[in-house]
Every structure is written in C-alpha cells, then in structure tokens.
UniProtKB/TrEMBL annotation:
One function term, GO molecular function aspect: catalytic activity
Cofactors (names): Mg(2+)
Keyword terms of this UniProt record: Magnesium, Metal-binding
Chain residue ranges for the region called Disordered: 330-350
Pfam hit, one: C-C_Bond_Lyase
TM region(s), chain numbering: none
PANTHER family xrefs: CITRATE LYASE SUBUNIT BETA (PTHR32308:SF10), LYASE BETA SUBUNIT, PUTATIVE (AFU_ORTHOLOGUE AFUA_4G13030)-RELATED (PTHR32308)
UniProt keyword Metal-binding present: yes
UniProt protein name: ATP/GTP-binding protein
Domain of life: Bacteria
Length: 394
C-alpha cells in the first residue's frame, strides 16, 4: 500500500519529486509508525463496517481503528464484538490497502478476538489499548503477546495515555516512568504511543473550542510536553507519539479570525477549497497538526473522513525540507559545522539538526517529497478532488 495511491499516475508525477514508497505491516517498525499518518477511528457498531473500511481505503485512508471503546454505548459491547469478528473475517478474505487496528475495552477482549478469529487475525495490524497504566498495561501487553504468538503476521500494540494518574501532577512522574519501563520491556511490540486528550480534558470539565488548539489548554499541553520528554527522545530510547484527536467537523459562529491565510489558496486558484475548510472547522485541525509536529508528535488520530486529507498532505516532505535534510546528512557534514541552506534562507547545523534530518527522510520514504514549487495547497487539492463524495460520509 502507498499514500496518494488513489491519485492518477499523471497527477502523482506532477506533484512529487520522489513519490510515496510502499509499506505494509511487515515494514520496519519505525517506518510503519511514521506511515500511519491520519488514523481514522470508526465505531464498531457502524452498519456495513467492512464496506466502510474498503471505501475509506479506496479514498486514500491508510490506517483505521475499529473502535470498541468510547465510540460505542456500554450496552452495545456484545453486538460490536460480533460485528468486529465478522468484519475482520470479511477483510481477511479480501484485504484492503490499509492497516486495520482494533481498540478494545479490556485486556480479555484481545484474547477473545484472537480465539474467535484464528488465522484471520492476520487482517488486524494490532490493538489500541485505552486507559493504559503501569498496572493495567501488564495485562494488556501480555494479552497482545499471547495473541501474537498464534498470529502469522506482526501484531502491534498502541497504548493510549488518558488516565488521571498520568494527568494529575502528584502521580504523573511515577506513573509515566512506570509506563516507560513497561514499554521498554516490550519495545518491539509498541508501534506508537497515543494521547487521549478528550478523556484527559474531561477530568477537569474542559473542552477546547474550535478556535483553540490542545496546546492552548494548559493541563493538556503540559502533559504532552512531559510525555514527549520521557517517550519521544531521538536517542534510540523513544517511541512515536501520535497527536490527539480533533473533534470538530462542521461550521460554527466565529469569535476569532480564521486560521488559514487567503493568499496561498488564491495563488493556486483554490479559494473555494479554503472556504470549504473553514466551513468544516478544518483550519483549526491544520493549525493543531502544525503544532503537533513542532512539539515532536507524529501523525494524528481522526474521527471524521474529512480530516484525513489535510493530515496526509501536511505529512508530505516539502522540496525545501528535503534539500535541507540532505545537506545536513552529507558525508562531509559528519564532523559538524554550519552551512547556508540551499534555499538561502536559513542555517543548517550538521550535529543538532541530524536527528531532525533522519526523521524527515523517514517521512519522505512513506509520504514522498513534493516537487519544487508544489505546496501544501496543491497536495490537499489533489487529495480532496480524488476522494469520492461518499467517502466523506461519517
């Protein structure tokens, strides 16, 4: 599977200097974590679940989660489990070009699903583990390990940090250190660490407005910083950390200015696209994605198909980023030093920018490198135009 595979060969040739590369669940773990991009959560109670997964995959979604937890009512658990089994069996018979995960409610659901699915569990790339803690995480990871022992393909775990123990200051340090130790012991099993910002904000009765980002919510922003500090290090001890969900997708009355400049869209004759993005509150999503990357996060959880295209387009490495990364990693720069960027607008420092350059080239491998002069607006326009209208239905 590849990102932007739903575009025509001609359009991809126009957009990319280096097109996105192929990946699957057998790919190297760090590459696969980067390739997740926008991970779409779908309630497991949704009617026609397997056709929905295939429709979204055909429209360019490359990672999805069948959600058995917060997305469904408590009384629907049994029917949702049955639907998940039927859906995974259907997908195993005719696999879509997407990674499919299951978010369970409890550790025992991992084993139950593995028993029910047998060899068809190979259609699942892993499990999302909610309310992950240093104590409960042992049960979760043991359950995934036992399921993986009978699975013919790699089976990953994606723990979600969203409990009061990780948020409350008096318990945070010990809890996060406990979780880090647990994840280190199961490093080869951990694909990414996810942050459940909605649950975390709920502990304080907070809900961020459409005009704000999660980084404007002090308690959440403080936790993200702490999580990145402990889990996101680039020295070989870190993990990929995924940006939290953006929960808005419809128009609303604005108190603050829109967060997308007009000129980049006007220059590309895409003013209509900007209007559509504003109507869907997607400008807030784009701003938050920019802040996610600035704070060391990779990819994003999404709950609406409309959110996939902006995150995917934003993940493409620009021609300028690629040029800078190559400059930093040139053999003659191994000893350090400073050079002027090939674009003549910044200084590239070989040693401090080396980890950034490695991560940039990893992203380029799965999302591609934009051709010179191709902008985010061009990539987003092509992605949106290629998506069938039916794919934007929730």
């Amino acid at each position: 599977m590849r990102h932007f595979e739903h575009l025509s060969d001609e359009v991809r040739h126009q957009l990319f200097l280096h097109p996105p590369g192929a990946f699957d669940q057998y790919s190297e773990r760090e590459l696969l974590a980067t390739a997740l991009g926008a991970t779409l959560y779908i309630p497991a109670t949704k009617a026609a679940l397997a056709p929905t997964v295939r429709r979204q995959a055909a429209a360019g979604v490359r990672s999805m989660v069948l959600d058995l937890e917060d997305a469904i009512p408590d009384g629907s658990t049994e029917s949702a489990l049955s639907s998940t089994v039927e859906t995974v069996r259907d997908l195993a018979a005719d696999p879509p070009p997407a990674l499919v995960f299951v978010r369970v409610r409890a550790p025992e659901q991992v084993g139950w699903l593995a028993d029910q699915l047998g060899a068809d569990l190979a259609a699942v790339s892993g499990f999302v583990l909610p309310k992950f803690s240093a104590l409960r995480g042992v049960e979760y990871l043991d359950a995934v390990g036992q399921a993986a022992a009978h699975c013919p393909s790699p089976l990953y775990a994606m723990p979600v940090l969203e409990t009061r123990e990780v948020l409350y200051r008096e318990t945070r340090e010990a809890e996060l250190l406990g979780i880090r130790g647990l994840l280190e012991a199961h490093r080869d099993r951990i694909l990414s660490v996810r942050i459940g910002a909605t649950d975390l904000c709920g502990l304080f009765g907070i809900r961020r407005d459409r005009d704000l980002s999660i980084y404007d919510v002090g308690v959440a922003s403080e936790l993200i910083s702490h999580v990145v500090n402990l889990f996101g290090r680039a020295d070989g001890t870190g993990f990929a950390i995924t940006g939290p969900v953006w929960e808005y997708f419809a128009d609303h009355e604005r108190l603050l200015r829109p967060q997308l400049r007009y000129s980049p869209f006007e220059e590309r004759s895409a003013a209509g696209l900007r209007t559509e993005l504003l109507r869907g509150a997607v400008d807030g999503l784009i701003r938050e994605a920019i802040l996610d990357r600035a704070n060391g996060l990779t990819g994003k959880s999404v709950i609406h198909p409309r959110h996939v295209a902006p995150i995917t387009a934003f993940a493409v490495v620009s021609h300028e980023e690629f040029s800078d990364a190559q400059d930093v990693l040139r053999p003659e720069s191994a000893g350090g030093g400073v050079t002027k960027s090939g674009y003549g607008d910044k200084m590239n420092e070989a040693k401090p920018h080396r980890n950034w350059a490695h991560r940039t080239l990893l992203r380029a491998e799965v999302f591609g490198v934009a051709a010179e002069g191709v902008s985010f607006v061009d990539l987003l326009t092509a992605h949106v135009q290629a998506r069938p209208a039916a794919a934007d239905a929730r």
